[in-house]
Design brief:
Strand order of the largest sheet: 3-4-2-1-5-6
Strand content: 5-15%
Structural class: alpha/beta
CATH superfamily: Decaprenyl diphosphate synthase-like
Number of helices: 9
CATH architecture: 3-Layer(aba) Sandwich
CATH class: Alpha Beta
Helix content: 40-55%
Number of strands: 6
Bound molecules: farnesyl diphosphate
Order of helices and strands: HEHHEHEHEHHEEHH
């Protein structure tokens, strides 16, 4: 029996978030430059996106570039930005054909203008697609996002538009760049690292975590099926007891 056919379509995670890690190590193992790993990582982005859409997952968020990644060697940063631009340009048609909407979270002001322009064009072109939303986290960090949310809320309080006593966790949801996107049910990190690394700190509060040793460029559809099957074997209690869930 194939892994895919074992997946219960009624209990799919509505939103899967992935920390794509291990590109550099994958390249090093092969005696190549780090960018070779990133280039091969694009193939895995395609595999994960296709597999998620085929199954009926509604949101897939990929951590493509963190705020901290700007501190990498300049050549790697430039090469990564080039790769992003060319991939977005190349894949927009495929996103249209497959009815996939592209969104982005992160500090878009930091992106090189060419990268921003290409990204914005793809977001605009795919905005009415309905099958699945692919969210790219670009120049993103959760602490940056939460800090911005706090600033916007503080402004509203200062202007008398909001009372401090009216601030709820929903108020915070609404001021994050993930506003409108359901929280991830499943978070996957590749390459054997067991960290969140400033990714969706608020939104992952009740997510199931799945870690695999597979390096991102080796990640394929079967790996995604494995992660979803593992997720489906877990009981999500959201702070309740098993008995309460059975009622
Ligand atoms: C982490 O591996 C990977 C990244 C920082 C970049 C991910 C980018 C891609 C897969 C390319 C394009 C993506 C899209 C969405 C078009 P690492 O460099 O940290 O690896 P290491 O931990 O082995 O050094």
């Amino acid at each position: 029996m194939s892994l895919k056919s074992k997946i219960d379509a009624q209990r799919l995670p509505e939103h899967i978030a992935i920390i794509m890690d291990g590109n550099g190590r994958w390249a090093k193992e092969k005696g190549k430059f780090r960018i070779f790993g990133h280039q091969n990582g694009v193939k895995s982005v395609r595999e994960a996106t296709e597999a998620a859409a085929e199954l009926g997952v509604k949101y897939l968020t990929l951590y493509a570039f963190s705020t901290e990644n700007w501190n990498r060697p300049q050549l790697e940063v430039i090469a990564l930005m080039e790769l992003l631009v060319s991939t977005i340009r190349k894949e927009t048609n495929t996103l249209m054909k497959n009815n996939i909407r592209l969104q982005a979270i992160g500090n878009m002001d930091d992106l090189p203008p060419k990268c921003f322009k290409e990204l914005k064009a793809a977001i605009d072109e795919t905005q009415n697609n309905t099958r699945m939303t692919l969210v790219l986290a670009l120049s993103y960090s959760a602490k940056w996002d939460i800090t911005n949310a706090v600033k916007s809320i503080a402004h509203k309080v200062k202007e008398g538009k909001l009372l401090p006593s009216d601030i709820t966790d929903q108020t915070i949801d609404e001021h994050l760049s993930t506003n409108g996107i359901p929280n991830p049910a499943l978070m996957i990190r590749t390459s054997g690292e067991h960290r969140i690394s400033n990714f969706l700190l608020w939104e992952l509060a009740y997510s199931e975590f799945y870690f695999t040793d597979t390096l991102w460029p080796d990640f394929n559809k079967e790996h995604l099926y494995e992660a979803i099957l593992n997720f489906q074997q877990r009981e999500r209690r959201f702070g309740k007891t098993s008995e309460q869930l059975a009622i």
